[in-house]
Amino acid sequence: xxxxxxxxxxxxxxxxxxxxxxxxxxxxxxxxxxxxxxxxxxxxxxxxxxxxxxxxxxxxxxxxxxxxxxxxxxxxxxxxxxxxxxxxxxxxxxxxxxxxxxxxxxxxxxxxxxxxxxxxxxxxxxxxxxxxxxxxxxxxxxxxxxxxxxxxxxxxxxxxxxxxxxxxxxxxxxxxxxxxxxxxxxxxxxxxxxxxxxxxxxxxxxxxxxxxxxxxxxxxxxxxxxxxxxxxxxxxxxxxxxxxxxxxxxxxxxxxxxxxxxxxxxxxxxxxxxxxxxxx
Length: 280
Fold this sequence. Notes:
Largest sheet: 2 strands, antiparallel
Structural class: mainly alpha
Shape: globular
Number of helices: 9
Number of strands: 4
């Protein structure tokens, strides 16, 4: 997905993130989080991906735990909680579904943040919304910059000494000061280059190729098919008052298959690329 045109990237992530947040059918949730997890490993490597999975897993666990504690809808009562409210089976199911939705969405956003680089953001929004494009590119670029700068500050100031809370607070204060100065310098630099002025031309390395057109056609067809399937009830699922929804009919299975193809197309692309390189 990294090699595709920025327009393809933004459309793809808009589709998969939107579907991950809207489709609450258990099959769709499972498809989304599995595809996102596999692509995360391919994109970031196993070690870095596992560290990210740990944080996502904690948030998912807290979401699944908190929902049944505060939500008491549903007809299947299991036990009475200390506060007098009832714990219901449906609230547990909804908590698990919400946890999977949160986990898949976070993973897709992490992938999108890696693929939609600063130059792609500026390309996408620079002409229509120059201020927004500059702001988004600065935000995305600040994340790795902040990590590197904080490591530099820590190494320079620690010098083998024991650190305290006051020491870390001073490091963060220095980091914030650097961030403000860097953002001001970047803004002045872009203004000096005439960024956002009417009639300003720009050079870009991005070209919309036949490969991009084929991917765009596939995404449109797959996205339309899945959305129409959802409208027709193939992905219908409700948690309250009774957990129930669309079963595994022939039409539903076709929609699930198309959703798998949509979410997993970057994984397929990576495997095809690796296979072609191996053959060569």
